[in-house]
Amino acid sequence: MRDVAIIGIGMTKFGELWEKSLRDIAVEAALKCMKDAGTKRIDSITIGCMSSGLFNGQEHLASMISDYLGNKHTPATRVESACASGGLAVRTAFMEVASGMSEYALAIGVEKMNDVSGDKATEALATAADGDYEAFHGINFPGLYALMAKAHMHKYGTTRDQLSQVAVKNHHNGSLNPHAQFPMEITKNTVTGSARVADPLYLFDCSPVTDGGAAVLLTTVEEARKLGKQPIVVISGIGVATDTIQLCQRKDILTLEAVKLAGERALKMAGKTIRDIDFAEVHDCFTIAEIMVMEALGIVEPGQGGPATESGLTALDGKFPINPSGGLKSKGHPVGATGVAQICEAVTQLRGEAGKRQINNAKTALTQNMGGSGGSCVIHILEVK
Amino acid sequence: MRDVAIIGIGMTKFGELWEKSLRDIAVEAALKCMKDAGTKRIDSITIGCMSSGLFNGQEHLASMISDYLGNKHTPATRVESACASGGLAVRTAFMEVASGMSEYALAIGVEKMNDVSGDKATEALATAADGDYEAFHGINFPGLYALMAKAHMHKYGTTRDQLSQVAVKNHHNGSLNPHAQFPMEITKNTVTGSARVADPLYLFDCSPVTDGGAAVLLTTVEEARKLGKQPIVVISGIGVATDTIQLCQRKDILTLEAVKLAGERALKMAGKTIRDIDFAEVHDCFTIAEIMVMEALGIVEPGQGGPATESGLTALDGKFPINPSGGLKSKGHPVGATGVAQICEAVTQLRGEAGKRQINNAKTALTQNMGGSGGSCVIHILEVK
Fold first, then answer.
1. Same-domain check for residues A182 and A280
2. Does residue A330 fall inside a structural domain?
3. Which residues constitute the domain of residue B92?
4. A83 is catalytic
5. What is the biggest distance separating any 2 CA atoms in chain B, rounded to whole angstroms?
6. Domain of residue A62, CATH code
7. Which of residues 23-52 of B touch A (CB under 8 A)?
8. CA-wise closest residue to A339 among A257, A235, A202, A229
9. Do A109 and A158 share a domain, yes or no?
10. pTM value surpassing 0.90
């Protein structure tokens, strides 16, 4: 297997991008990535997008984006695993380079969610749940995560304040990120003073509906050296795992098994343990998700995600910073773009280019991208070589 | 890059499978494939499906199918490129094995199109066209291919009879295929006596709306040898290319550039020319498509697809048999499954297990799977080693 480096990153502003179409957003992210990489060579394109069919009435997206990017004959693939589509796109691009099918592989994540009305967006997102056994009965994602939050509070004593602290921390980080959709500081009162969405979750426990795109360019480490890239950021580990989509079929709804397994697989491939990781970008689609992901990854023991957040462990200046970008909560969550955007943030940090939100001496990062309520998970380990 | 072999194939009956759900169909194809391969080991799953979102209200399909197959923690990815989704799934599974990410990679193609009403099926399929520049104006796929057929008739003198002969040949082949949706012989009068869909195309020029699934299991050639597989069918070449989706943006709507390029790339990778190929399964979504694909692949000169079909070149006992399975026309076209089903047929022929539709001395096959009106194309070269 050939060693793979990330030599370019690019992102659009995340938000309500009314003046830009789906194809505009994807192309903007890709062009910024190519400029950052300093090369125009692309041998293959992989697009991560959850549901351009339901959001935009457009499948066949990879061909369309290749064309609008000015690369119409390039091999192109769209990959989907609900909200983990972006992470899978990077993994697929990794395989392009690792296998030798491509020398330069571009991965783009994109979603344009605001062109449909609110009801339709919720309906489209609900297709990440089991249509026959969950969505049919009327439960949507705030509801599914609310069930997990309630159970977590009951079993471990996780408090409402601890959930709020996740949002407060991530909005603080996001306030330092020019790409963030909601780059403002909030307090715990902002969270509990917002509309109740699904008990115990308030509006400010939930990631927003977002338009946005992100892109990364991969090539071999050898090629990155030839181009004189410094530092060279490599993907040293990737882990993917799936789980039953239905919460009702899981042995324990408080253990995200796909996250646990994907983490173990990625760390094993990289020859590392979680103690070797300097910081992580994780999938905080809801505040409770960040807490459960910390536990599944072994950053803290089960039940300790809330207290650890409260103690400042995961703050920018904590011992294990989580979501320096602001996370899905503040940066926004254009579902197909999220996994790629996480990697853009990790590379920015590893290059030392994160400005006011820079983590000191960051050399090794973990990104964790999750589909639905944990039905799939893709984890990347990135390192400076 | 590691050499890759196909050690298992499986298909459902194609047709209106009212009693089977989307997940049932995918799992049935996969279980038949595992039985054929004689192993239960699966390290990764790739699902080709065009639009389970629009047809079935279900994204996150790869996790769901892994779970229902009894492999819930397995890495799983869905890939999409409209009607070329199945071919891309096999290519992605190929990269899993070639790169070393997986030893055993399962590719499943599936689509369940009959659970929505006719209008909705046409609407879902139209998302393979450009939503803003084609579908918005009301043109759908019969219309797009009718434009190509008219232009082909005008430029090259292709006749109505020649179009009909494609359907007659493929229905003859399909009548010998137990998986086919419409396994009956037809005459040219059947075609021109059927309903006019979009001038010059009749109902019997069009592939049907179909439910169905197909699966293949890939591993290394070395592993296939260890398992004692005989003959060993290898994937020796893969080519993918994209093109502008919009017909109006092409230099020439009579040249399928994506097919031409994908064919050149696949043959180059395999170290072959089109003269080395014994037979092909091609994407006859409409009768005119088979004619144009023959020309794009260089099987005949541009404009000679019609006369060559009339002369019997592409018949089962012709010099270059095309669509021994019956093709999309007679076998059916569950869009995401088609590219995988083509490879199932090619392997069946290369193993000498095709019964009454067996092609004599078939050692090298080409499968050509196409998205939309040629916006993407995936070509595989299979050989007996």
1. yes
2. yes
3. 4-117+210-226
4. yes
5. 56
6. 3.40.47.10
7. 44, 50-51
8. A235
9. no
10. yes
